[in-house]
Write a structure and sequence with these properties.
Two copies of one chain form a homodimer. The first copy, chain A, is of the alpha/beta class. Chain A is built from 13 helices and 14 strands. In chain A, the strands form four sheets. Chain A has a seven-stranded parallel beta sheet with strand order 5-2-1-9-10-13-14, with helices on both faces. In chain A, strand 3 and strand 4 form a beta hairpin. In chain A, helix 1 runs parallel beside helix 2 and helix 7 runs parallel beside helix 9. The radius of gyration of chain A is 19 Å and the shape is globular. The two termini of chain A are 25 Å apart. Chains A and B meet through helix 3, helix 4 and helix 5 of A and helix 3, helix 4 and helix 5 of B.
Amino acid sequence: MTNKPLNVLLLAGGVGGAKMAEGLQSNSNIVLTILGNIGDDDSFHGLWVSPDIDTMIYTLSEEINRKQGWGVREDDYKALSFLSKLGADTWMSLGDKDFGLHIYRTERLRRGDRASDITKDIAKAFGIEARIILPSDDIVQTKVLTDKGWLTFQEYFVKERCDPEVKEIKFEGLEVAKPTYEALDAISTADIILIAPSNPFVSISPILKIPGILEALKETSVKKLAVSPLINGKAVKGPAEKIMTSLGMQADAIGIASFYGDLIDTIIIDNVDSELSPKIRTLGIEVFCTDILMSNSSEKKRLAEEILFLAKNNNLPEGAER
Amino acid sequence: MTNKPLNVLLLAGGVGGAKMAEGLQSNSNIVLTILGNIGDDDSFHGLWVSPDIDTMIYTLSEEINRKQGWGVREDDYKALSFLSKLGADTWMSLGDKDFGLHIYRTERLRRGDRASDITKDIAKAFGIEARIILPSDDIVQTKVLTDKGWLTFQEYFVKERCDPEVKEIKFEGLEVAKPTYEALDAISTADIILIAPSNPFVSISPILKIPGILEALKETSVKKLAVSPLINGKAVKGPAEKIMTSLGMQADAIGIASFYGDLIDTIIIDNVDSELSPKIRTLGIEVFCTDILMSNSSEKKRLAEEILFLAKNNNLPEGAER
């Protein structure tokens, strides 16, 4: 092994992705690049909001509201109270500090700046060392078909609280979307590619489906690992298992492994799911079991260290449960 | 006299205009229409802000921060703190609730709605009975020439705190601006036209200069009164006397009366300025003296009542000092 820090590329969605990124960013032996999800992006009150990217920025800068896992700590809803008074539809909880960021992003987008450059500048202003890059600077929006028709992801997730059954998922704008050079470059120069315990269908898929991204990922021969977003068939947060069941898939780590298929060579699942390992191995995917819940800062660090050890040594470190 | 309520049209700028409007709106014998100033309007962080109109709305809905005379009570600056963190220029104090209103207005303007219609809807949502109308739906911006070059009014007023000497004032956009039908209609149907104790040069002029407005005002034969914004040669608030001195004018009630000239038939000045009355009368303008400071709610009401009495009876009521 050389002493050169490893380039780790993390494909990450919402809260689970941000937690994994947090564990990795404290590791001084790697250079971390996060390829985030823009599929949840949407316009609210004429402002462009990028929920997953914002959650990542707030988490890595410790501005996050830890209790919620999203939004900004010590924020308030005064702007929203006036919008509501003015008759605007305010089901999307946008805090005042949060609005400051959306106002900034929107103004720069209107000026013609690339979303990637704006994100880079926001991350810098928030003191984040990891690179946060976007799969595309074009608009690609996740839409969910339900009994109520096609909903944007935030309509499904926030307004409808994931209640309606999901019949189909699509990503609008894919036909014309181009990948960013940052994403293609990060994929080709990564030493390890890691898929965070994010929802595969609505957080990771919108990244993979941007033309050129999946192809680039398949071309590289580095180690590619995924961490299961399901523990005992349940998502730690969000609607992953509901969506899997709705779509007629197996809502467990096997379903996750099947979904990624030959994109990954290794999956990390929770100890409680260890009996699923043999079945996953029949898919040609190596399995390691450990505690993947990440309920506090030291667990995030420990999981990050185990994954990095595994990537280098093809085994978990001594003492990690498996 | 009939019992039909009088149509009172108030030409009003910032804080002084809002105080006068407040005194008038409590009077049940009149129908109040306020023709506001849009010359201070400007874009901040990509949002369209209309300071004088907002001050009017916040004042008449009792949302105003009474201590400041502008802005919203119980507001905070969380959005601005993030904009500042992101490197934006945040000399313009915009509160969080205030941002909610600017976001709403900007979204509707981008959709193509008329500024007049947006203002009407905001006033309605804020429970304001008086009509607030705009002189134009086009952008007409007050620019102030100083040693630092041409500044927008907010740059001069807020950023530079009225420090630089004013060499010239212009209103950009006048050439193509059209008056609103609401303004022309309100002028032609008014029973009394009142000019609030606002800055004549930067609050009232931008209204008068919109093509068609001054002509319409001169065509009507109703009583036209102005209240002096200067007491003992000083503005109660804002840079009126500084600007007058800079422009080589007489910074007192005589200067104000000369400025309005034959547009008004009557001016109301403060008791402390009573010795100026003979000189003002030589201009062909009738003068009445009373206490015009309006430092509290009952003084606002009392002044409004006296003015309405004066408009009907061509004299101040018994007991008013003069």
